Amino acid sequence: MFKKPVNNWKTSSPLRTSDRKKLRLKVASSFSIDTAEADVLVPEGILSVKFKSHLNDSGVAYLAPDGDHDPLWFILGKGTDAQQEDALIIPTVYTLWKNSKLLPFLSTPKAVIPILIGGADLMIPGVVHCSQSLNEGQLVSICKYERVDVDGTLTPMLSPPLAVGRMVIGSDQLQDSGQERGKAVYILHTWKDHLWELGSKGDVPMSEPIKIEGGEDMENTEDSEEKKQKQEGDAHIGVETIAAAATQSDSDSTKTSTYTPDEVSQLLRMSLVQAISQSLGSLPVSAFPIPATIFYTNHILPNRPNYPVLVLPFSSAPSDDLASTDLPGPDPSSITIKTSSHKSLTAFLKSAEKSGLISTKTPQKHSAQTDMLVTAVNASHPDVQVHRSFATIGEAEAKAVRKTLREEEKKKQQAAASLELDIRELWKPHLNSVELFEAMMFSFKLLNGVHSPSNLYNLQEVRSLLSSYFATHQLVNSHDQAYINLDRILMMCVVPKPKLKSSKNKSSSAKAESEPQAEVEFMKRDDLIKGVLDTMQSWYQVRNAGDDVLPKKGKLSPIQVAMKTRQGRKVSTLITGFEPFNLVAEDLSEDLRKLCAGATSIAPIPGKPANSGMEVLVQGKQSKAVVDYLQGKGVPKKWIEAHDVIKGKK
Predict the structure, then answer these.
(1) Phi and psi at residue 573, in whole multiples of 5°?
(2) Which of 8, 95, 348, 635 makes an SS bond possible with 52, Cβ 3.0 to 4.6 Å?
């Protein structure tokens, strides 16, 4: 919603006391909080400002009265305000950082957050945790979920809300339908979008470990089953409930299939061998040493098997034939140092060094470097040489991210295509080409009576007519079909006439005007078609989808975007030739002034006759921003030419 600059911000003004009271009551009732808490979130003197998004959606934003005027709430919809019963009041991330429990939330991996900030919606594969009581259309917040290594222990962490959106489907469908495609949440507002940038742009509050009630960590499942079951029934799920739900799932899995600590250690060693085989073994010597924590987080953890049961069958399975049971396989994310027999990262790395897989260095006493260093890996180790690669967690996560990116890129392309201008180049028979088209019409009159020498034709139609003419008159060269034999009409159309040095002999002059300069027997097909087009009159048509616009006479040229040095060493970006593309100089100048945050000006094009068009100047090197803006206005990329005159290149 706010991924691009917001247009037409009106002047902000304080809410009247009565309006603030209504807004406070609406917040209290909408989010089930008491009036005292609503007083804090709707402070006295709160400002309101109307706006239009880049999609021309109208709305009202409510800003804090002091400081940097952080946006606190917003409402979408033309003519809506907080007093209307059906108006949906939406908290911003600034407000959710003050009270994260205003909205139920979903969590998503760290890699997905930049995609949401870029304007994408949250897809189903990107959901890690969600409540069991969310309804379609319900407001939710989005938090970042990640596992952080703390002293050799992989700890689940959850960030404060970083986005706000509406559910596309209910959580029951999200959990039970088994869908792998489609959207989970329509994103309305995110951290770092243009609404957020109106405020103080303060740092995001610290992420917190996910803990269940009683202070136990998410990984501990022994003594909290009853608490977890109670939490799962809560309609408004907080951090503790999310952790409990995940813990319950882990507990159920533990009852049916799990690895012993020695087996986890074996899997971690296999992950290390996989990392050496696939990436670490090819690193240059200069890439080492690597701190142990980074080595574990960036190389070992991503190389854990995504389907560990296929790599190492678990010893606690009640049947030798795993495929015949309904028991779930072990969770690959449970393969950590904490669940292994080593219990610490240092012990694991020392064991790997003892077996000859790696070399390590212990930091000296009183040194600023407290982390063990991995100084080398042994790519020639026998275990590495005979290792058979397996599907890893890192590959699965990367595949999910690529899939989401592809879907979002496809969505952007479809949206751009729907907004793109329909540009047609047309040609009309003129002068020498009139006789050629009359001959073609005469040849095809029994087949097609629609065409006429006075019509406008696009490139495909001209090609089709000429190809039919070549075939009808058997003009295709028998030795090389890429060449066309010229008859008298084609020669008169495309072969230049002689230029006379003197006009004394009128009879010779008349003869020269009626015949080509020299006999040309054949021409290449493409060159012949280009020659015919050059003798025709150029027209063009530029229209938005669904509009009915009359064609205009003249040759359509691309918009020119040139960066030049003016007045000494000052660089400016100049835009010309935009008028045929339904762009107005004043609107273009104003939009670019806001987009580029720099001065702009409008002037006639220097050295051109009057009415030749205007030139818009933007201060600074803004070529990329201008090109992106023009494409956003529907101008196809092929109709934009960018020049860097400073460097002398295009």
Answers:
(1) -110, 125
(2) 8
H or E segment and range at residue 648: none
User: What is the Cα 176 distance to its own chain's centre?
Assistant: 28
Instruction: Say if CB 442 and CB 469 are below 8 A apart.
Output: no
Q: What is the DSSP string of 53-90?
A: -TT--EEEEEE-SSTT--EEEEEESTT--TTSTT---E
Name the β-bridge partners of 373. 291, 361
Q: Extract the tokens encoding 346.
A: 């240092």
Read off the amino acid at residue 26. K
SS3 561: strand
CB 122 within 8 A of CB 140: no
Question: What residues pair up with 508 in beta bridges, in sequence order?
Answer: none
pTM of the model: 0.41
Asked if residues 187 and 1 have their Cβ atoms less than 8 Å apart, the reply is yes
Using CB atoms within 10 Å of the CB of residue 460, give its burial: 0 to 12 exposed, 13 to 18 middle, 19+ buried. exposed
Token pair recorded at residue 497: 């006439």
By the 10 Å C-beta count (0-12 exposed, 13-18 middle, 19+ buried), 316 is classed as middle
**CB neighbourhood size of 107 (10 A):** 23
Which has the closest alpha carbon to 529: 482, 586, 569, 564?
A: 482
Q: Which residue has the tokens 């002689």?
A: 498
* Residues whose CB is less than 8 angstroms from the CB of residue 192 and which lie 6 or more positions away in sequence, other chains included: 117
How many helices and strands (H and E) does the chain possess? 20, 25
Burial of 487 (0-12, 13-18, 19+ CB in 10 A): middle
